[in-house]
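Q: Sequence in, structure out?
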Amino acid sequence: MGNVIEIQNLTKNYGKHRGVSDVSFQVQEGDIFGFLGPNGAGKSTTIRSMLGLIQFQKGSVHIFGKDIRNNRELILRDIGYMPSETMFYPSMKVKDLIKMAADVRKRDCGKEAEKLCERLQVDVNKRIRDLSLGNRKKAGIICAMQHRPRLFVFDEPTSGLDPLMQTEFFRLIQEYVQQGATCLLSTHVLSEIKRYCKNAAIMKEGRLQCTDTVENLTRTNAKRIQIVREGRQESYIYKGDLKKLLGELAESTITDILIEEPSLDEIFLHFYQDDEN
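A: Exactly. Output:
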């Protein structure tokens, strides 16, 4: 399979303020690709630059093999994008919003929209201003999905969704991917990356830290150590030789010890820590 997204040396600054610098990664066709990082890491700036919604200073972006700078309108026809903030006309009814989104694309999406509304339990007769955050998110998801695009781009899609709707959302993504679509999933929720993504990129402070399979990113020799030493409880992540550690601990008065695998959050934490740490 070829690459649906190819980003090379993407750089975007806001005047003197940092945006993203020298970001490069690829997303293969048929992948659910995780784009991971804390808030402010540069994920949204990368996505908006990638889609041609804001201008970037350096680098190149190709989607479906076409340069976004020269083919933006053509490319966007086959993309379903939901930004992290879902802002709609407050007086508009949900059904009118969904129809407007389809009309903009000059597509008849009625049948698919009806299916999505049923799956996501959306009341189409409510006005936007009367919706909770989660229901506004669901309306945005439907607008992004109803035309069955080749590429989905979701920026923090599950914030505000209850656990049942989160599961249903990912079930829909998996169904579309099985039918040939590709998905770029931007999130700071590590468990979503672990559960649903095969490959992932990690951002920090506007720079790409690494790109790899999720299996490799979560593989570690580190252990979480919990001990009671001389009456004091200690808990930390240890990345060295366990035999050496046990030898050192043998010189102390240890009344309890537990050695276990670190949590997913702890595995990824070192990507976010300051260099001096």
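Residues 86-148 form one domain.
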